[in-house]
């Protein structure tokens, strides 16, 4: 979508309609389509992670400097080589930023789906503690979610820094 303006013009309105719908709005459909348990959770997690990755990938591909594309064309590279050697490396920082946002969104969706459609997990335990008015367990669950979120974000950030060390080389 990012490299082809016609495809972008065709599908962008649909993406802009679907993108602002929060993954939690899909919960009733997910339960109807997949029942209770893990399948609706997987669907909701995929929805939560999909749009940040897609939108950042499109932005990254659209931001590739035209001089790189013209230089590659002048050297006679094919479309596959253009994609793998020029477009993908130039768009990688955007893609990985989208992955980081998508993983964060997916983690939130995991907790929400555990509260609604799954009979296990931190989200379920927090709601279970609410029923018994165990505020200490609710707070412990919230702190655990925060620590897990921090650990996941730190791991993804370190992976991004490792994968993009070539990109950051001139900055340090």
UniProtKB/TrEMBL annotation:
Membrane disposition: Multi-pass membrane protein
Keywords (A to Z) from UniProt: Cell membrane, Membrane, Transmembrane, Transmembrane helix, Transport
ABC transmembrane type-1 domain span: 1-156
Cellular location(s): Cell membrane
SUPFAM superfamilies referenced in this protein's UniProt entry, alphabetically: MetI-like (SSF161098)
Coarse class of the protein's main subcellular location: membrane
GO biological process: transmembrane transport
Transmembrane region(s): 20-36, 42-61, 94-118, 138-156
Entry keyword Mitochondrion: no
A cellular-component GO term for this protein: plasma membrane
Gene3D superfamilies in alphabetical order: MetI-like
Keyword Signal annotated: no
Pfam families on file: BPD_transp_1
Protein name per its UniProtKB record: Putative aliphatic sulfonates transport permease protein SsuC
Upper classification of the organism: unclassified sequences, metagenomes, ecological metagenomes
């Amino acid at each position: 979508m990012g490299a082809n303006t016609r495809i972008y013009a065709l599908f962008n309105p649909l993406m802009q309609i679907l993108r602002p719908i929060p993954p939690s709005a899909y919960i009733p459909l997910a339960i109807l389509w997949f029942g209770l348990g893990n399948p609706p959770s997987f669907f909701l997690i995929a929805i939560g992670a999909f749009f940040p990755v897609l939108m950042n990938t499109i932005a990254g591909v659209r931001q590739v400097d035209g001089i790189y594309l013209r230089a590659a064309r002048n050297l006679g590279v094919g479309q596959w080589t253009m994609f793998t050697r020029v477009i993908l490396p130039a768009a990688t920082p955007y893609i990985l930023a989208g992955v980081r946002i998508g993983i964060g969104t997916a983690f939130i969706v995991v907790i929400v789906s555990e509260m609604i459609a799954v009979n296990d997990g931190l989200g379920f335990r927090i709601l279970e503690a609410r029923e018994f008015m165990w505020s200490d367990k609710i707070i412990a669950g919230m702190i655990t979610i925060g620590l897990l979120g921090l650990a996941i974000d730190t791991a993804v950030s370190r992976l991004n820094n490792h994968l993009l060390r070539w990109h950051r080389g001139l900055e340090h």
